Amino acid sequence: MSIAHTSSSEKVFAPAKKSHRTAYLLLAPGLVWLLIFFAFPLLNLAETSTKTPAPSFETGEFVQTFRFANFIDAFSANQEQFFRSFFYALCATVLALAISYPLAYAIAFRSGVWKNFMLVMVIAPFFTSFLLRTLAWKQILGAEGPVVSVLQFLRILPADATITATAFSVIMGLTYNFLPFMTLPIYASLDRIDYRLLEASGDLYANSATTFRKVTLPLSMPGVVAGTLLTFIPASGDYINAQLLGSPDNFMIGNVINSRFFRVVDYPTAASLSFILMASILVLIVIYIRRAGTDELV
Amino acid sequence: MSEKKKVEGDLRLDQVSKTFGDFVAVDDLSLVIPKGSFFALLGPSGCGKTTTLRMIAGLEEPSSGKILIGDTDITEAKAHERPVNTVFQNYALFPHLTIFENVAFGLRRRGIKDVNEAVEKVLNLVELAHLKNRKPGQLSGGQQQRIALARAVVNRPALLLLDEPLGALDLKLRRQMQIELKWIQTEVGITFVHVTHDQEEAMTMADTIAVMNNGRIEQMGSPADLYENPRTVFVANFLGQSNFIDGEVEASDGENLVVSLKGSKIALPKSRNNAKSSSLKLGIRPEKFRLHTADEKLTGNFLEGGVITDISFFGVSTQYLVEMPWKQELMVFEQNDGGAPDLEKGDAVTLSWEPQFTFALDGDAK
Amino acid sequence: MKHWLSKNLIRIYAAAAIFYILLPILYTVAFSFNDADKRNIVWQGFTLSAWLNPCEPIGICEALGNSFKVGITATIASTILGTMIAFALGRYNFRGRATTNLLIFLPMATPEVVLGASLLSMFINIQIGAGLVPVIIAHIMFCISFVVVTVKARVASLDPKLEEAARDLYANEWETFRRVTFPLVAPGIAAAALLAFALSFDDFIITNFNSGTLNTFPEYVWTASLRGVPPQANVIGTLMFVIALAIVFAGQVISKRRQTRR
Asked: Where are the transmembrane segments (chain C) (predicted)?
């Protein structure tokens, strides 16, 4: 520990530098890993996005030409998928919110001894392969599955209609996948509310609906924001649900990026699309956070 | 610092200061705490008493100054190198260890292998040996407090620091613990430094009290000394209650001063005068006043023309608020032993008191 | 009656919601007992044959083994790296805090497609390509953030007075960490490790980009979904579910026990 002497009447101890050094030593390995395998690849992708096919026209060969028009081309060729992705993600988020909020409320305030059990049940989906789950939905919603049979029996669905391979089933799949991501943050926010606040509200002449609107709901907003972000962002980039539960008419931007990487070997387009997707997500995050006012991201 | 030589002696703080950015928490503090005494640091929240304690413990570094135990300068020693142990405000018992292991913690860290005897002995001292296999979460507040004490005492430190340890206990338990702590201190003979904002607690337990305010010591002395002869308004109001009446010194009369007090002449012994100027604030504690009916003939120090505006029953005593002709309300405590006259709201009274119970401060003192 | 309904409506709803959440899982479990070879879509009869011959379909157990290889390696590495970062963030005041927070947050906010694509792109550029090692590297990368968030919450809830008490009782920095800090943070680290393993095991998109010819279990299921997923996949899914549930419940029992007498 170093000690700095000024004059004998004002001996001052320097802040223990050791603690700063320890902090950096602790941070270094993990952060370096993220820099090399997260930040750098993204930069690399940025660099790829402005390349064009090599003069030799060999598959997979590109040269750097700083062609920023790549972005415009990529966007205009895939506008439909972009808007569809955000639309599906938005629907999924809204549905997930509608389903999750009452569930989180019930767990936080009305569950009694069942609280832990219910929380485990909410996370339970994590414990099985999400592909298997999605395939199970494909089965459940499929032509031979129970849902279609019941709906046809009730004459809600015409005799030869299917639910799968529609936008509806893709959105349903997306919603289902992200329920835990929406429920848990909302639950965490609600759980933190001191029930005495709710009692105070009642004491001050608010009925339960007003208490909810004026006290509970605002206090749960951080959870709602977190849940919304954790749902919308991955949902907009998803392609599994579209592939398994939808048809090419329902393909999202994730499907396009995937195929541009593997099927049609067009790295610059795939890279451009990735960046447009990322950029739009970041813009949405910033707008949302500015309005909802949460800054504790991590 | 040598580990082998036993560090002991008086605790000495030499011009110790601590600043946090612009805020001066402790301002050029110097004091000596004799070995084996029970010392209290008393003051309101934010006065710097806890910061001082933490600097003694080594949990905070002084911005300047020195801390010594006997001849050993411990200013630069780290917390775990000092022969000082702390009883924390919320006990800070290790939740994952049993009571036995909590108490044995310090002994084990010092390399002592056979801890059984020492731990059992100190657990018996606090009468909680039967709980040694429980975990802190299973104990009541009072029990946790005694274990926190045991955990510190078992190490026989040169100094035991107590950071408002009784704050979380209810009144009855607190009173009981105050007596117990005092008893343990005399049993064990360790120097106790007790930080509290509760003046009754400090007065009951400590041999010496230092009253702190804004990072400085306002006055230090025995409880009786501080109580009966406060040197500042702050100390007078912090320890118990005081009535302050403005007066002027008029003449000197042997061992007394003659003071003009709102039209009456009263005697002030010179030994009780801490004022430098002739304009005074005269302090009289509420319990020193005697109430008389208005028709009684009195000699000595008395003030006439008071009217009772409020009476509160305190069980042991009755508190009266008396409005004087100069529109000041004075507070009077009369013990309920039949000595005071039967009075009601609105009655006219005269107040009297013994001169030696007056204390005088500067007229513009804060 | 109306009062009872309004009070319990939300409880009924919660039960229904949980049933909805569990429905595909119940389906998966049920169809692991289906008497069907490949096309495991329609119920054909109860049989234990899938359970008795879990490795029969070609490649399934190899894929499972790969998932474990990747999962365990990634879990160990990301838990260590992430825990170190969590301690730095939770215990020290250092410059560059905001940048660190951002760098931790961004991987969680980036779509997996972008993460997978950018890594593959880089690996191709530096001639490493795809395979086991790139997959492990990728998994470590995306798990770190989740470990940090989980452990940091636990570190933040640790009363600093406990560490002060340890120092007051003659424990130096290492002993304080070993005897007080670590035991109290351990449950958070364990939870983070479990989370990391679950994320790694179940990951498809990033793995698909970077695995090349290697198959993990999710990749096996994906390829199989085109021609028909065998019941053995359901068996494995069911097993993972049961094991995970068991671990979680065991964890709760253990933590209850830690609070009371030994």
From this structure: 12-33, 72-90, 102-124, 130-151, 180-201, 235-254
